Predict the 3D structure of the following.
Amino acid sequence: MSTQTKANRSVENIFQLDGKVPLTKAIPFGLQHVLAMFVANIAPIIIVAGVAGLDEAQKAMLIQNAMFVAGIGTLVQLYPLWKIGAKLPIVMGVSFTFVTILCYVTATYGPEAMIGAALVGGLIEGTLGMFAKYWRRFIAPIVSACVVTSIGFSLLSVGAASFGGGFGAENFGSANNMLVGTITLVACLLFNIFAKSFWKQLSVLFGLVVGYITAAVMGMVDFATIANAQIVSIPQFLPFKPEFNISAIIAVTVIFLVSATETIGDISAMTVTGLGRDVTEKEIQGGLACDGYMSSVASLFGCLPITSFSQNVGLIAMTKVVNRFTIMTGAACMILAGLIPPIGAIFATLPEAVLGGCTIMMFGSLVVSGVQMITRCGFNQRNTTIVALSIGIGIGFTQVPDIFGIFPQLVREVLQSNCVAIVFIVALVLNLVLPKNMEVEKNQKNMMESV
């Protein structure tokens, strides 16, 4: 076998879960995963830190900690510790799922109570994950399919907001933001069309680079934070002393259960779209255990809970790059960003409009993945009812948040902006109460009427 043939085969291993990939080929694909999730990883930190009234130095410290913990969590998912970890190309990051409830808890009870609630909630989710085989059967494939689809739909607005410049941006929807977002999107598409062989899979990275350069030329990138960053800094352990408030713990634990379902959906979507097979019970168990326990570890560094990142599931759906070593190089980049602040500062200067130009297509791919999962379950009467009602109520009700006005404030905070939670609850209940043989009963009734 020629050297060139061996090299080609090693590069093709990026589409295999295991196998050797040259480091020079692995790093660009791993870096693509980091760039795809970086802004979304630090945005929840910035939002909750703002509610807590933290200063800029504290925010910078938490961003650094978030990258470090996300990198460690990703390594554990890739290369498990005992039963903790799915042994799958799952990228971990700070989850938007918790933002609403943690803002409420932080504003009501303080950041210390938020950290304590995240610590306890993570331990609960991790322990439940270890025993997933006893309750996993209650979450049927059609429930996971509904959750994955709703995750995709819920992220579309995130991608669109990034395209316009980011939530709350003073220049939201400006000509500069729209131009940069469009150039980034077009660059992704053109690279995907004209690139050859495995290079096609780097379309998102190419788009980010082109968009970043364009934004820099247009004066949209502030390099001051890079110049002022320290060269090396160790992540700060226990920046806040945890406090344990029972109300805060209950509220946050409910969202951990929703997050667990999202993780099941993410892992299911990743194995279907990336590996071409169904997820195993062991992978669900390890993935959930890592989600929970690593969220508890994250809380000790003052961070919000971390979980599997839907953005990166969408990226895998697009690129089919699932090699664990390749994704590990991305995890190493995140850890470096946590240890070397200038690296994180460079990533932090990535304009939202650039990210939006790439993620809008990624999130759309995630919606398609959810539809594919629904198709695999089949469009019988029972499944159609579950999908129609859960998606209809989940997405429909959250478009009209005032409909939750009769509920207590805590319930409103949990549900009115979280369509995934509602989709999960409705789909789960319907899956438990609807007859298993609805089509049979319908056919029997028709036969009786005809007689």
Remarks:
- The CA atoms of residues 139 and 428 lie 7 Å apart.
- The mean pLDDT is 84.
- The longest helix spans residues 23-52.
- Residues 8-439 form one domain.
